[in-house]
Structures are given as C-alpha cells and as structure tokens.
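worker-03 picked up job from queue 'complexes'. Input manifest follows; two sequence lines, order preserved.
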Amino acid sequence: MGPFFTASDEWSFVLALVIGIAFGYVLESAGFSTSRKLAGVFYGYDFTVLRVFFTAAITAALGLFYFDYLGWVDFSALFFNQYYIGATLVGGAIMGLGFVIGGFCPGTSACAAAIGKLDAMVFIVGVTIGALFFDLFYPLYSEFYESGNMGDSKINEVLGLSKELFLLFFIVFAIIAFYVTTKIQQKVAQKTQKY
Amino acid sequence: MEDGRQFKKRYVFVSLTFLLLSVTIFLLPAKYDMTQKQARELLIDATDATRYISSDDLAWILMNKKPGYLIIDVRIKEDFENYTLAGAVNIPFEDVLKKDEKGNFLNEDILSNENIKKVFISNGGIYSSQIRLLLRRLNYKNIYVLEGGLNKWFQTIIKPVKPEPNSPSSELELYNRRLAASIFFGGTKTEISVTPASNGASSASSVVKKDKPKKKGGGGC
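worker-03 finished. Artifact:
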C-alpha cells in the first residue's frame, strides 16, 4: 500500500488541498485561530498548543510505527529533512520569538486570516516581508545556513536508542509535560484570580 | 471542580492509551522483513529474460576486457582450480550467503556493489540461477547468470559446432566469431584438466584437452 501519489503526480495538489482544508478546520475548531492560545504557552496561562502538538507527534509516531509494522507504510522509504544544527537553533529561537510577539505560527495565521482576523492578516504580511528579506540577504549567512549538516539523522540514533525505546521515553516525557503544564496553568489561574 | 476532574480523567485515559500502545510495540512478534521481495514480484523477476548473459556476450566482454563485470564461479574449489573463466573469483554455492558472527554477509562488499555486474557461473545454469534468485529476493542488484553455464560455454565458445554450408549467413558469421573466441580462449588455456571422478583419486593428474565439463564431480546440472 502507498504511496497513493508521488510528489510529481498532479493529484498530489488536490490531495494537499483536501488535507489543508481538514487541517485548517481542526486548527480553527481547537481554537488555534486566536493569538491568545499561542502566546498563552509563553505566559503560562494556556498550554493547549503544547498538549496538542505533543499529542499530534505521539499519535503520528505511533501510527507510523504500526503502519510500518503492518506493511502499509514503508518506513525506509519516507523522506526526512536534512538536519542543520546551527540554523535550527537560531531559526527556532527567531520563530519562537515571532510566536510570542505575533501570537501566531505560519499555519494558524493563515487559519485566522481566513476567518477575518486583522492581526493575522498583518502577521502574514510580516511573514512575507521577512521571507523576502531572508532571500535578499541570503548570501550573507548562507555559509552558516548550510553549516553543521547532520544529514537525516534521527534523535534516537544520535542517542543510541532503538526507535521503540525512544518512543516510549518520549511518551513518558509528554505525559510528565502534560502534568507539569496543567499544574502551572492552575497556579497562574489562581494568581490572576487573586487580583 | 467537577469540570476539572473530568478534564483530568480524559487526560489519564489518553495517557494510558499512549503508554499501552507504545509498550505493545515491544511485545509484537518480529516484523515481516519488508526488505525482501514479495512472491509475485520475485516470480516476475525470476523469469526476467535480462537475467542471462549469453556465452557469446560474455566472450566478447572478456576478450575486450570490458570493465564493470565480475564473474563469480559458484562451483566447488577444486573445480574452480581446474578450470574457470579469466578473472573469475570463486565463491562456492554454500558460501555466497554465509554470514559472519555479527550476522552480516561475508561477501556483502561484492554483492552490494551496484557499480559492477555480478555474473554467476556454474557448470550448468541451475546453481547460478538459484543464487541469483536468492540474491534478488534480498534485493541485491545487477545479478546475472551465464546462460547454460560452463557447459554451454564449452559447446559454443571453446568447441563451436560448424554449421552446415547452406546455413544462413548470420549463423556462419556467428560461427566465425565463436571460432575467433575459441582461439582466443584456447590460446590462454589450451589444456583443461578434468576433475577426478568420485572414485578416481589416481586420475587427478590426468590432463585432457578441452574436454567437456560433464565429467566434473562438482555442482551443476
């Protein structure tokens, strides 16, 4: 089974559209189209985003594992992005800052703009300008951008763990994160109630 | 408060489900090896006409010293030492898929080198074809078999049969080419010792000119 469509298949665009609509619908239903949700992770009053993304990662990991086991998906045929350690760290920090300041991630901004939120539209304009500037001045930091390439290395391989064991640790870690964030959320809620 | 408790219950349920699913992975029986070819695929591959290299083609490759080919003789060592093709290496049938203590194939370097075409030869074509099928199942690439094995090599290249005078010109041309190849290969190795028969240790030193390999005691058909 699979792949249903290859990347060069024209049907992949149709599939992308269908998946995109479903994704947008779920984002909006989960309340991600409000900038408060994303900023809430930073201020500690709402950890929905963290929970949702952790849950999504675990679901996808477990799903992939079982699909691979049943022969529905060939794990070895999957594409993995190249990992550039320096660029990832800096890029991650910039993106995180953007999340806190803007209150959106690129995906949720599109979702919020679709339901008519002005701040999201401004955010998208900002993202576009940022991307243009990045492209314009690319030669300045191209060397750094391409440095520290670790190939398509996977975290379990770097740590010397088996896929299965890492997944178990990851799930345990996620559950701890769920618990801790819930406690933080409760504490912050109590504090704000006082005033 | 009621809301908070329900909220917690939901989280406990999801967490336990995740944990259960991840622990179950450890209890599953070993996964079916997806790196091996499936039966249907293998069947198509087994009858693929391009699996063969004819003796004429191989003779041309050897005469012109074409790079990118490795001839692997899968007969037993004695047979190999008695006669083989120029540049051939000997990996007896049983040793082709032999593994070391770590479970890796001993001949992995040769087998997984996709830049060279591996041409397996045996007396007939059975053993070499079997090896090819086993290797193709394990997804090794560029695996070929000498059509008809060394038996056909002798019949066509070493001792080509002269066609009738009224045969089509293509056949006569082929004969001439084979004759040239015969001189070429005969020149390098005119004497071929025959493997002693199972009972004949005394005949080990007997040397027969270009005898047919049928008498060989080793693998083949």
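worker-03 released lock.
The longest helix of chain B spans residues 2-27.
Helices of chain B lie at 2-27, 39-46, 55-63, 77-82, 108-111, 126-137, 149-158, 169-188.
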